[in-house]
Amino acid sequence: MNNCTYQETEFMPQDSSSENHYESAIHLNSTSVTERTSTPCDESKLKRFLNRKNKLLVFSVLGLVLIFAIGFVYFGISHVVSQEHSLNTQKTSLGAVSMKLTSCLNETSFAVENERALLQTCQNETDILQKQSKEQMLMILHQNQQIRHREYNISTLYAEIEKYENLTMTLQKEINAHKDLLLQKKGDLEAKDSAIALHQKYIKAVEGSLEPKDIQLAKQKAELESHLDKIQNQSSEIANLTANLEAERNKVLEHLRVNNVSKMDNEKLQDENLKQKLQIETHFEQLKLQNSLIETHMSRIKALEVDVLSKTNMASQQQARIEMLESMIQKYTAESNEKTEKINALSNDLEIKKKLVSDLEGEKQALQTRKEDLKSQIRTKDAEITRLEGRQCYYGYGYGK
Question: Own/partner pairs for 228-231, CB < 8 Å, 24+ apart?
Fold first, then answer.
């Protein structure tokens, strides 16, 4: 019995840290037991050792399970507490956000009312701008008609100038031909005079042959008289052509006077277009810069002063042009005595007409440029109207629903 007790106390583990040592002791003890002859004391000791080992394993497993359960419960409680704290924080933030949203909705409704009032004002101004745009389109159509009328007048003047140039060239050719013919006739007359002198000497020398010579001289005299009649007829034709040129020149001068009147009408239209352009610019300045109304009026006054100065300059230029035309007409009338001088004066007049036609072309280009400017202004106003209509649709159909 003492031996059993000693061996039991010798191989029993004192704590959990000596478990490996205990297992190695069991292994050595089991080998020694198998080597020795087994006794009832050894079997009971082994059973008690195994039972204690199983109980120790069970208690260790239960302890670990309990520790995990306590940790899980602790972490669950802490998670619930943190979730509750976050919910309270979110409730507070949601309350603040709801207050901000309420204030924003109030401000938005107030702003929408203001924008609707502004939109109504913009709609009224848009109607005014549309009416003005229609008036401007009518003015542009009227100006297009005037431009087409001026183009027709210019083409007519070009045709008349070409006609006068052709007529001048024809007359110059005829005059040159008449000059050549007169020189030829003069040479023939001189030759005939010398022949007559020879015949007279011959008549004096030979009196018997006077009668046939007289007959021949009478024939030659008749031929000379017929040539002189032809020359007089050609001179009358040249006089008729000169009268026709004078009539055509009067027609051209009448066209020039009509064109001067149309130029004055054109200047009036240009002045009206400038005034309408200033009015349109004033409307846009009133829409965009309502706070700078005084400066806009000052700019309008300055523009009117510039317009008055431009009108004065244009009137002086027109008066100078009229005086120049009158002096040219007087000069042409003074130089219209001889045929060659008439043709030269007509050539100068044609050059002046070309210059006037080029001036009309320049005025036509200026009218075309002003028409393009008016079209661009109308496109700008159409874009402004479209923008205002877009805003009306946005506030009328966006916030109005």
Answer: 231/178, 231/181, 231/182, 231/185
